[in-house]
Structures are given as structure tokens and as C-alpha cells.
Amino acid sequence: MSEQLAAEDVAHDAEFPELIEGLQTRRSGHNFDPEEDISDETLEALIEDAAIAPSSYNLQPWEFVAVQDDERLDEVVELAYGQEHIRDAGTAILVVGHTNAKTADAVFEDWVDAGRMDEETAQQTKAQTAEMYDDDGMGRDYAIRNASLAAENLMLSAHARGLTATPMIGFDQEGIAEFLGLPDDEIPVMLLAVGPSGGEEPDRLPRRSVDEILHRESY
Ligand SMILES: Cc1cc2nc3c(=O)[nH]c(=O)nc-3n(C[C@H](O)[C@H](O)[C@H](O)COP(=O)(O)O)c2cc1C
């Protein structure tokens, strides 16, 4: 028998109930107020909140391209196969992911400066990370995993500020990369339509139950 004592099961009530309420009430809205846009301060606050998302080794392999000019928004609507709510939202933000560890030099210096890694470990980890990113397909996986978390943060921050942020992948990936001038080693991960709500949205569609999706110990 194991000598390890069994940990006690403890119920954890929400310490931040408003955070739970926020994620339970967030919606992908299609009804935006076309008369009202977001301020520069709000845009910057959303990006700040997005950038606090976790990322592999804190590499923060993401960029955000915000389009607010009316004519350019029209182009984005066209590239998104006519999704008109983007125009009404007033702001489209493309969340972009790095497919390589291009931030590694600066980030691993942070680990060393913070006393969380010695120089040798930092150099080794940096080399391993670069290798992993270079592995065929892995760079794309990293880009999507990391940038998707930033996108979710941005959506929750928008909701907390009384805004709607709708995630989309229904767009011409290559077309938008070209239109927005993305570098070759970065990919579009999620397009967000962000703006003040224009009113009611249809009821949320049901979610699959916990019983159905929670698998204990193995699938
Ligand atoms: C990866 C992904 C792609 C999506 N693509 C689109 C899209 O192209 N257009 C759109 O209007 N909504 C899109 N959505 C929003 C979903 O339709 C929405 O999240 C889902 O219906 C659940 O609704 P809720 O977010 O309001 O709970 C997308 C969501 C995700 C996560």
C-alpha cells in the first residue's frame, strides 16, 4: 500500500464569483450597435488583458491587428465571406500567432533576471524550444494554442467591459494575412469582431453535459 496519505477532497466555492458569472454570460454576439465604437483607451486595455494570457515559457507569441477604418472594415467583411456584423461592431481584431520562437531571446533573459532560471538552463531551454517550434507542424500548433488563449482573454475582458467580442475563423486565411501584411512566419489564429452590443442576442445554444464530456482516468 502506498505510504502517501490520501489528499482530502475539498469543495471550492468561487473566490471571484464575478469572473465565473462573466465567463458564463459571455456570448458570441451578432447584434452590434453600429452607432458606437470603442475608444483607443479601451482597445489598449483589451490588448493588455489579452497579453496577460498564459503562454508556453511566457513566450507571448502573439500580435493583434486592429482594423477600424470603414473602408478597410468593408474589405475584412468581404474576406470573412460577408459577415456583416464585423462592420457593425466597428473594430475587427485579428489575433496572430508566431510559428517560431522569435521572442525567445528577450523572454529567456526575463527568466534569468527574475532568478527563475540560471543562464545555462535558459540557453538550453531556448535551444530546445526553438527546435520544437521548427519541428514540422509544431510551430503552427504552438501558434494556435497560445494565441487562442489570448483571444479568449480578450473576449472575456470585452465582456467585462460591457462589450461584445465574437470569435471567427470563417475568413479567407491567406487573403487576410496578405491584406494585413502579416510576416511569413506568423499566421491568423482568430478574428474578433469587437464593439458595443446592439441589444438582445438569441438564447445561448445548449452545451454538452459534464457527464458526457468528463472522462475520469482515461477516455
Ligand atoms: C474557432 C471558432 C470559430 C468561430 N467562427 C465563427 C464565425 O466565423 N462566425 C461567427 O459568427 N461566429 C463564429 N464563432 C462563434 C460560435 O458560433 C459561437 O462561439 C458558438 O455558437 C457558441 O455561442 P456563444 O459563444 O455565444 O456561447 C466561432 C467560434 C469559435 C470558437
From TrEMBL:
InterPro entries in alphabetical order: Nitroreductase, Nitroreductase-like
Pfam families, per database record: Nitroreductase
Organism superkingdom: Archaea
Molecular functions per Gene Ontology: oxidoreductase activity
Alphabetized UniProt keyword annotations: Flavoprotein, FMN, Oxidoreductase
Region (Disordered), start-end ranges: 195-219
Alphabetized SUPFAM superfamilies for the sequence: FMN-dependent nitroreductase-like
Cofactor(s) this protein requires: FMN
Record domain Nitroreductase: where: 24-195
Compositionally biased residues, Basic and acidic residues: 201-219
Keyword Flavoprotein: yes
Family: Belongs to the nitroreductase family.
Protein name as annotated: Nitroreductase
Species whose genome carries this gene: Haladaptatus paucihalophilus DX253
